[in-house]
Every structure is written in C-alpha cells, then in structure tokens.
Specification:
The protein has 190 residues and is mainly α. The chain has a domain at 19-83 and 113-173. It has helices at residues 10-32, 36-57, 61-79, 85-96, 119-136, 148-172. Helix 3 packs parallel to helix 6 (148-172). The chain is extended. Its main location: membrane. The chain crosses the membrane at residues 38-56, 62-79, 122-141, 147-164. One of its GO terms (cellular component) is endoplasmic reticulum. It is a multi-pass membrane protein. InterPro entries: Rer1.
C-alpha cells in the first residue's frame, strides 16, 4: 500500500523559499568578501547617489543627519580595539600598578590589534544603512522640516570632538588601527 505524503502547508512553502533566498544572499556576500576595494567603491557610489537625491529633492535632511550619526558610530567602532586597554588598565592597576597598552619592551607580550567592528561588518552595516536611508527619501513622512545648516554644524562639531577623543585614546594606549607604516616581515627572513 502506497502512503500519500501530506502536502506542504503554505507557511512551510514560504519558509522554505525564504531560507533558500537567504542562503543565496549569504553566498553572494561570501563571494564578495575578498574584493574589498570594489565593495567600498560601490558603497561610496551608493552614498553619492544618496547625497545627490538629498541635494536634488531639497529635503530629508533629518534622514541624512541620522545616517551621518550612524556612520560615525560605525567608524568609531571600527577604530576601537575589541578589548579596550583602558578597562584592562583599571584591572591591571590594582594588581601590579602598571598601565595597560601595547608592548613597548622586548620582554612584554605581543598583542595584535583586533577591531571591535571588523571591516566586513563595517562595510555591510554602512551599505545597508545607506540603502535604508535612500529608501526613506522616497517617503514624505520622513521629510521633517529642519534648518539643515544647524544639523551640518552640529554633526561637524560632534565628529571633531569624538575623533579628538579617539585619537587621544590611541595615543594614550599606544595603538594604531591601520597597517600603514607598520613594519612588514617576509616569510623567508630569520
């Protein structure tokens, strides 16, 4: 006797289709991982289209300001180490009285710089935020009337203050989040 299989419910069919689309999207993201400059060029292009939309439409300044604040937050997370040396310094001060930081002497342990927000997640979050901001510019509910020069000046002040604080933190705990100017060693050198 042949038993008939129950038909798939509509919810299960939609769920299967959604998971298939998610796997395809994730495969596309995985394939784009090694192409760092091209990914960022696409993101900068999308940002330029967003700014062009803001400029031509003469509105949605609050959306642009919100996007600017979010991108600044992402950039700060990208610059910061995963394990904050200021927190470690507080813990170490109680134990041995020395301040935290990267090794400066031969006998200190080497600790590589690990970002709090990796480059790929930074790119992905920034691109997604710009896309969402672009979509928001097509809905009049997000076009709140504001005096945009105040937002620009406030954002510039916020950027200057937070970057000054971040640079002071980098100097105090002696870390550089970029590999430019660092010594590079060959595999064959002894």
């Amino acid at each position: 006797m042949d038993s008939m299989e129950p038909e798939q419910t509509p919810f299960a069919a939609v769920s299967a289709h959604t998971s298939r689309l998610q796997r395809q999207y994730q495969a596309w993201l995985d394939k784009s991982t090694p192409y760092v400059p091209y990914r960022w060029m696409g993101t900068v292009g999308l940002l330029m289209v967003f700014f062009l939309r803001i400029f031509v439409a003469q509105g949605w300044y609050i959306v642009a300001y919100s996007l600017g604040i979010y991108l600044l937050n992402l950039f700060l997370a990208f610059l910061q180490p995963k394990f904050d040396p200021s927190n470690e310094a507080i813990d170490n001060d109680m134990e041995d009285g020395s301040a935290g930081g990267l090794p400066t002497k031969q006998d200190e342990e080497f600790r590589p710089f690990i970002r709090r927000l990796p480059e790929f997640k930074f790119w992905y979050s920034a691109t997604r935020a710009i896309s969402i901001g672009f979509v928001c510019t097509w809905f009049s509910i997000f076009d709140v009337p504001v005096f945009w020069p105040v937002l620009v000046v406030y954002w510039l002040i916020l950027f200057a203050l937070t970057m000054r604080r971040q640079i002071q933190h980098m100097i105090k705990y002696r870390y550089v989040p970029f590999s430019i100017g660092k010594t590079k060693y060959n595999k064959n050198s002894n």
